[in-house]
UniProtKB/TrEMBL annotation:
GO terms for molecular function: cysteine desulfurase activity; pyridoxal phosphate binding. Keywords: Pyridoxal phosphate, Transferase. One of its GO terms (biological process) is cysteine metabolic process. Signal peptide: none annotated. Pfam families: Aminotran_5 (PF00266). The keyword Transferase applies. This is Cysteine desulfurase. It comes from Roseovarius litoreus. Its EC number is 2.8.1.7. SUPFAM superfamilies: PLP-dependent transferases.
Length: 406
């Protein structure tokens, strides 16, 4: 069980007030808050241990390189990946998916080839594939979720045809909280020879992830949702796919030799890490992942599942609130509207007056908004440090908004 009091004390921002009220931070789906150990690691790195990595022979450069490179192993451990050379460090999921689109998919797809996507993907897992549609005539095939927001893995597998070259699917919806059985998708896709990219941006913070067990080809994560700094992240790329992939960006660090006439590349994963990286951000991410593993991913998941059930029960008890996505197999992420009464932005403004931070908008999920028939929702997204008292604070603030607008 989580020691929630201790965990909350580890996150300094949680003790502040907003608009004269204790902060109830429920915008974790957008970005999570940072524990003191991460803040301290960033300060220490800049105050005492900073230099560029990989290229100096002096003490500080070696120290920074050692700390930076150790994070590759930490990420591999966090994701259940046996070989850390399959982890490419980057600035986050957006960069990771773009790397796959430019470096792996573009050179091997032609007009008429297909990419299968679920309707609940984030724009980071849509727009790079639109580039291939616009530039190369690749066809995007969409798989719907059901009325509860669940995605049937069989429907994804049924969409595979002779021209399917990739399945790109989220592990957990940033809007509905739906968990996707990506293992079943990968098993079925492997039998048909179709690689699978999993967007793990939301899943990795809410539940234990074992990428080797999932059996995907690509698994993208983003540091700032994992209690780490923004500008940090990584993508797991299976070694067979690494061998097939072209570098997406060229520059320092990713090369072995450069002359006027030729270039030879470093071995993967360095081949895909051009330029000076987010050194301190990545070091901070390593500390954030160690923090999560110390707390325990199973305990985090159990705490959040309990929060999710409680929040689901309380939110669906408000008969004037339209809660989107009611599948029981979901993380503590809730999207809702007050149909005909108030716009999502107005609701979030009232909530903010009560110190409750939620997000309002399309959540970078245009196709899902179309599927749900809405232009915007309010989203309350929970993290390991949230409590049932904070669910109650959300409900109180929603009742106030309903009294004002309803
Ligand atoms: N995928 C999902 C499911 C997300 O929720 C997000 C961020 O909101 C992203 C991708 C993009 O992550 P980033 O902006 O950190 O690259």
């Amino acid at each position: 069980m989580l020691d929630i009091k201790k965990i909350r004390a580890d996150f300094p921002i949680l003790s502040r007030e907003v608009n004269g009220k204790p902060l109830v931070y429920l915008d974790n789906g957008a970005s999570a808050q940072k524990p003191q150990v991460v803040i301290d690691a960033i300060t220490t790195a800049y105050s005492h241990e900073y230099a560029n990595v990989h290229r100096g022979l002096h003490y500080l450069s070696n120290l920074a390189t050692e700390k930076y490179e150790a994070v590759r192993g930490t990420i591999a451990r966090f994701l259940g990946v046996a070989d850390e050379n399959q982890i490419v460090l980057n600035s986050g999921t957006t960069e990771g998916i773009n790397m796959v689109a430019y470096g792996w998919a573009m050179p091997r797809m032609e007009a008429g080839d297909e990419i299968i996507l679920s309707v609940m993907e984030h724009h980071a897992n849509i727009v790079p594939w639109h580039f291939l549609r616009e530039r190369q005539g690749v066809v995007l095939k969409w798989v719907d979720v059901d009325a509860t927001g669940a995605l049937d893995p069989q429907k994804v597998l049924d969409a595979i045809g002779p021209k399917t070259k990739l399945i790109a699917v989220t592990h957990l919806s940033n809007v509905l909280g739906t968990k996707v059985d990506v293992k079943a998708i990968c098993e079925g896709a492997r039998a048909k020879g179709v690689p699978v990219l999993v967007d793990g941006s939301q899943a990795a913070v809410h539940m234990p992830v074992n990428v080797d067990e999932i059996g995907c080809d690509f698994y993208a994560i983003t540091g700032h949702k994992l209690y780490g700094p923004s500008g940090s992240g990584a993508i797991f790329v299976k070694s067979e796919r690494l061998a097939e992939m072209r570098p997406f960006m060229g520059g320092g660090d990713m090369i072995r030799e450069v002359s006027k006439d030729a270039v030879t590349y470093n071995d993967p994963p360095m081949k895909f890490e051009a330029g000076t990286p987010g050194i301190v951000q990545t070091i901070g991410l390593g500390v954030a992942l160690e923090y999560m593993m110390d707390v325990g991913m199973h305990d985090i998941a159990a705490h959040e599942d309990a929060l999710s059930s409680y929040a689901q029960q309380r939110l669906t008890g408000l008969n004037w609130l339209n809660v989107q996505g009611t599948t029981p197999d979901k993380a503590a992420i809730f999207s809702f509207t007050m149909d005909g009464a108030a716009h999502a932005h107005d609701i979030s403004t009232i909530l903010d007056k009560k110190g409750v931070a939620v997000r309002a908008g399309h959540h970078c999920a245009g196709p899902l908004m179309d599927h749900l028939g809405v232009t915007a929702t309010c989203r309350a997204s929970f993290a390991m440090y949230n409590t049932t008292d904070e669910v109650d604070a959300l409900i109180d603030a929603l009742e106030l908004a309903h009294d004002l607008f309803g």
